[in-house]
Amino acid sequence: MTKKQADYKLFKSAYVLIKNKTHITNKGILELLALKAVLNKGLSNDLSIAFTNVVPALRPEVLLSKVIDPFWLVGFTDAEGCFSVIIFKSLTSRLGEAIKLSFILTQSDRYKDLMNSLTEYLGCGNISAVNRGTIDFKVTKFSSIRDNIIPFFEKYPLQGSKYKDFLYFCEVVKLVDNKAHLTKKGLDQIRVIKNKMNTKNIIA
C-alpha cells in the first residue's frame, strides 16, 4: 500500500539474481550491490569503499492506491498506532482535571498522500507534522472516536498486543460518553484503566 512496493520489487530482483546464481559472477555481484544501494539505508561504508564502481539502481515507479484495504489498516495500526488517554490539569474543570482521547497513527512524511487518504476513508481526523520527517494522522474529536474509530476496529479486530489497548480505550470511551469523567469516581476509574494501557501486553 505504500512506497515499500518499490522496496519489494527491488528485493524480488535481488532474489532472482541469487536464484539464478548470477550473484557469484563479478557482474552479478555489482548488480546485487546496485539494488542494495537503493534499499533501506543503502550500502555500508565498508561496501562503498570496497566497491567504488557501483552505480545505484533506479527505484521503480510506484502508483499509490488511495483505496484503503481495511485489513492493511489493521496491520498498520498494530505496528504504528496508538490509543491514547491523557488526564491533564484543567482550570475550567470542577475536578481540576480533564480527559483527552486520541487515536494516532505515525508515519514518515514520505507517505503524506496515503496518510491524507485516511481522513477520507475513516471519515474523520487530520494530519500534522510532528518531528522532522514524520507526520501524525490523529483523531481527537470524541464523536469521531465513538462513531468512526471504535466501530471500525470492532468490525476489523486488531491482531497484536494493541487489541488489549483498544479494549481498555473502549472502556474509557464508554465512561466519557456516560459523563462519568465528570465525577471523581469516574475519573479515578479512568486513571486505573489508563495505567494498564500502552504497555507490552501479551494476548492470552
Please sum up the structure shown.
The protein has 204 residues and is α+β, with helices and mostly antiparallel strands.
Describe this structure in words.
With 204 residues, the protein is an alpha+beta fold. 47% of the residues lie in helices and 15% in strands. The chain is built from eight helices and four strands; from the N terminus they run H-H-H-H-E-E-H-E-E-H-H-H. The chain has a four-stranded antiparallel beta sheet. The protein starts with a helix and ends in a 10-residue tail after the last helix.
Nearest-angstrom radius of gyration? 23 Å
**What distance separates the N and C termini?**
30 Å
Structural class: alpha+beta
The coarse silhouette is elongated
Beta-strand residue percentage: 15-25%
| Low-pLDDT segments, ≥5 res | none
List keywords for this structure.
204 residues; alpha+beta; four-stranded antiparallel sheet; 8 helices; elongated
Secondary structure topology:
Elements: H1 4-19, H2 26-36, H3 45-50, H4 70-80, E1 81-89, E2 97-108, H5 112-122, E3 126-129, E4 134-139, H6 142-155, H7 162-177, H8 184-194
Antiparallel strand pairs: 1-2, 2-4, 3-4
Helix pairs in contact: 1-2, 6-7, 7-8
